[in-house]
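From the methods appendix. Each design record in this collection lists the tokenized structure first, followed by the designed amino acid sequence. Records were kept in a plain field format so they could be parsed without special tools. The example shown here is representative of the layout used throughout.

RECORD:
FOLD TOKENS (184 positions):
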């Protein structure tokens, strides 16, 4: 999958914007991106700019739960939606810390004009809410045998799912989808 996203990001046409929308936390995500970037630095790329950038600059925005190390070495995790403030209004079943559907809509509103197409890659049942908000020209790449696939198959038609659905089991399949998108 690394090759698929770095290739898509490196192309200037069509311009590709990457959003990381995760129920994890900022320390975890930044750690993963740095580890993968360190591995990429050891690889040989034909595009040296890509080698210098790695994955830590891939995402235009990362939306997740805040986290930080305190001076004693403890990892302090916080909810994206503060429990003492106004709560999200999701009726689809998002966790209390974040409604991914509301977060996706807010991201899209901040990045007007509208994207020609949104490609959402997900696997968990908590990805169902944002997938329901996708348009008919959008695509969800759904990991097989996970919560998202079960919800799409069980509830998608009744809930008015509009987007196209592609299934994947391994990262190489996502790479194949991305290559096909270039042809469209």
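DESIGN:
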């Amino acid at each position: 999958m690394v090759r698929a996203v770095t290739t898509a990001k490196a192309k200037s046409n069509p311009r590709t914007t990457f959003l990381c929308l995760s129920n994890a936390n900022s320390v975890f995500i930044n750690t993963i991106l740095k580890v993968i970037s360190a591995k990429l630095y050891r690889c040989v790329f034909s595009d040296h700019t890509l080698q210098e950038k790695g994955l830590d600059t891939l995402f235009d925005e990362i939306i997740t739960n805040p986290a930080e190390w305190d001076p004693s070495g403890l990892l302090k995790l916080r909810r994206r939606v503060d429990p003492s403030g106004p709560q999200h209004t999701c009726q689809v079943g998002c966790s209390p810390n974040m409604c991914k559907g509301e977060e996706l809509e807010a991201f899209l509103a901040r990045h007007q004009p509208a994207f020609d197409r949104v490609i959402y890659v997900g696997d968990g049942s908590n990805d169902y809410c944002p997938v329901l908000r996708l348009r008919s020209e959008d695509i969800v790449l759904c990991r097989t045998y996970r919560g998202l696939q079960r919800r799409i198959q069980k509830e998608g038609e009744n809930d008015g799912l509009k987007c196209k659905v592609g299934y994947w089991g391994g990262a190489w399949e996502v790479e194949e989808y991305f290559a096909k998108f270039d042809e469209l």
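APPENDIX NOTE: Residues 2-183 form one domain.
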